[in-house]
Amino acid sequence: MPDLSRHRLVGNVRMPRLVYGTAWKKAATAQWVEAALRQGFDGIDTAGQPRHYDEAGVGAGIAASARPRDTLYLQTKFTPYAGQDPARLPYDAAAPLAEQIAASFANSQRNLRSGYLDALLLHSPLRETAAQRNAWAAFETLADAGKVGLLGISNCYEPAQLRQLWREARIKPSIVQNRFYAQTGYDREIRAFCRANGLVYQSFWTLSANPQLLNSATVLALAAAYERTPAQILFRWLIQNDVVPLTGTTSLTHLRQSLDVLAFELEAQDCTAIAGLLA
Ligand SMILES: NC(=O)c1ccc[n+]([C@@H]2O[C@H](COP(=O)([O-])OP(=O)(O)OC[C@H]3O[C@@H](n4cnc5c(N)ncnc54)[C@H](OP(=O)(O)O)[C@@H]3O)[C@@H](O)[C@H]2O)c1
After folding, report:
1. Torsion of the alpha carbons at 48, 18, 243 and 177, rounded to the nearest 10
2. Is residue 55 within 8 Å of 112, Cβ to Cβ?
């Protein structure tokens, strides 16, 4: 039985309530992935996007942690050409989209040293409807083959786009991974759609895009009352509101503080006070 204070069940997949993100760590990637797993993180987010992620370094860090594969949640992304460095592509840009996706995924399997990955996200929606449908069909083929557990989409800020994907997909998306910030109204409609349909909303830019929340009198007072940091209060509020935050910290103190958010609970009136800041 999974410990539901640390994980949630999404279909048959155990997704940690907090996931370690691996962007921008370059040569230090393996070291930080190992540190995160040794400190107690169970989930890793990466991408087949060498411009921002050293996915082979992620695999090396996982191996160095000596954590059994079945205790881990591994999530990667297929990044369309527009988001790639053309000099460092994990696929042949001239190949059809379905082949690009298959090649990128096979490369991720090699990098992460795992034939099965828990989740695959489309890094951003494709502008052309036909391309978007082809991409999703290629994702479904990987799921049909048992190579991946959950499918999802990232940087999807138009509720209509998410609804269309949901309507058309044979295998429905299980994850939306988005920037969590004021400019999109904190994705209120998208988060409501996710909650109503059993998708998981994963947040990034959670701390860096929200200094006004972290420095608000409400959050500062709660931080003092719970003897936690403002970042811990915000992460905890998100977890209690069905969001899975990503953190890519490169500080041992912040790694430990992030994990500690699984060890306390905000009271209902305090959750309401924080929700008021996002209204
Ligand atoms: N799908 C996408 O397009 C996309 C885009 C961006 C990111 N991501 C994913 O999301 C992950 C997280 O990225 P992010 O943009 O949210 O930023 P982040 O890498 O988690 O860090 C943002 C800032 O917050 C600080 N920080 C982290 N934890 C803290 C804590 N507990 N207390 C105080 N400060 C803390 C970090 O400094 P310290 O290092 O000093 O802690 C850093 O300055 C990435 O690694 C990646 O996996 C996905």
Report:
1. -10
2. yes
Q: Is the pTM of this model over 0.85?
A: yes
The 3-state DSSP class for residue 174 equals: coil
- Name the closest-CA residue to atom 45, ligand 1: 21
Separation of CA 82 from chain center? 20
Tokens 């969001």, residue located: 243
* Residue among 263, 231, 227, 266 at smallest CA distance from 246: 231
In a domain, 94, yes or no: yes
- The answer to whether position 88 is within a domain reads yes
Ligand 1 proximal residues by C-beta, below 6 Å:
21-23, 45, 154-155, 177, 204-208, 229, 231, 246-251, 254, 257-258
What pLDDT band is residue 3 in, cutting at 50, 70 and 90? confident
Q: Is residue 59 part of a domain?
A: yes
* Residue partners of 239: CB distance under 8 A and separation at least 6: 17, 18, 245, 261, 262
What is the CATH classification number for the domain harbouring 91?
3.20.20.100
Per-position b or e across 155-172, b if 16+ CB within 10 A of its CB: bbbeeeebeebeeebebb
| Cα–Cα distance for residue pair 95/103, rounded to 1 Å | 10
Tokens of 2: 């999974």
Distance between Cα 97 and ligand 1 center (Å): 30
**Is residue 1 pLDDT above 70, yes or no?**
no
Please tell me the total count of domains within the chain. 1
Backbone angles phi, psi at 251, to 5 degrees: -135, 130
**Ligand 1 centre distance from Cα of residue 21 (Å):** 7
* Cβ atoms within 10 Å, residue 199: 23
Owning domain of residue 188: 14-207
Residue 36 CA to residue 59 CA, distance in Å, equals 13
pLDDT band at 91 (very low <50, low <70, confident <90, very high): very high
Q: What is the pLDDT of residues 42-63, one digit of tens each?
A: 999 999 999 999 999 999 999 9
